[in-house]
Write a structure and sequence with these properties.
Length: 172
């Protein structure tokens, strides 16, 4: 074999080794990116879960204060801590963070304040939450319609349609 054939074999072999090394570097780079993406995803999930837990703990504390009649804590929670006054105590997906679940999961702050007879807090919640009013109306409306229909059978055709039209308005 001539000197040039050994040289050709050497070049071919070294090119193969370089190609293999380049492929390995690309694989390592892809794996590194994938590992970074997984780490970022896990960190984002952990952060979101911590925010959910903090929000639920604040929400539960505000609802507990409402049950105890502490209007100042309720107002602070709704106004400063951005606790949503609408809906029940336990937010969707936050059941794991509640130590003792409430008896009525749909009971809103307005319902608790009304049950406690705190008219000032009821008025404040009414003024500071557009959704509490609409949810309360939607819960009470069917019962109210049935009572009125039973009391006066002539209202059966006009009253339900009148009330249903009035629920389309938004309170801001």
């Amino acid at each position: 074999m001539s000197r040039w054939s050994y040289f050709t074999i050497y070049l071919y072999h070294s090119a193969s080794l370089e190609r293999i090394a380049a492929e390995e570097r690309q694989k390592a780079k892809a794996e590194s990116k994938k590992a970074q993406a997984d780490a970022q995803r896990k960190k984002a999930e952990k952060t979101a879960r911590a925010q959910q837990q903090r929000g639920q703990l604040l929400r539960s504390a505000v609802f507990a204060a409402a049950r105890l009649g502490d209007a100042a804590t309720v107002k602070k929670g709704v106004w400063e801590d951005e606790v949503d006054a609408a809906g029940g105590e336990v937010k969707v997906g936050c059941h794991d963070f509640v130590k003792s679940p409430p008896k009525d999961s749909q009971e809103a702050l307005l319902h608790i304040a009304a049950r406690n007879g705190d008219s000032e807090l009821v008025e404040w919640l009414d003024a500071h939450s557009q959704f509490v009013i609409s949810q309360t109306i939607l819960v009470i409306l069917p019962v109210l319609v049935q009572v009125l229909i039973r009391k006066n059978a002539t209202l059966q055709t006009s009253l339900p349609s009148m009330l249903l039209c009035s629920t389309d308005t938004h309170i801001f």
